[in-house]
Each structure stands twice: as structure tokens, then as C-alpha cells.
What we know:
two-stranded antiparallel sheet
Amino acid sequence: LTNIQHDYEKLIVATIHMHLDHDHCMEVVLVKGDAGEIKELTDKLTSQKGVKQVKLTVMVPGGNIPQ
């Protein structure tokens, strides 16, 4: 996962790594940038062995969500 994140360092604003228990961790990756590149990153993370769930949440700056 770290190598993939290094490949997309221009998109990644921050990461948070949390230990849920002895055998499970959760990583939150905050990204900003081109939607196509973010999708590519999401797909690569999803395909990694051991990754159980990837959830992409999209936010629009300033709350200006198109109707």
C-alpha cells in the first residue's frame, strides 16, 4: 500500500493509520485532484491482497453540490 501511495503522492494530502485490533488496521487516505487519477488510485488499492474494503467518499469544495 505504501508503494502505491508513493506513486500517487501528488494526489495524497494526508493519511491516517489506525490499529483496530492486533490483526486489523484501518487506513484513511485523503486525496485531492483529478477524478480519473483518484479512481485509478482507488482501483489499485482495492486490488491489493489483504485489503478488505475501500470506500470512496466525494466532497465538493465549499459545499457547492450540483443539483
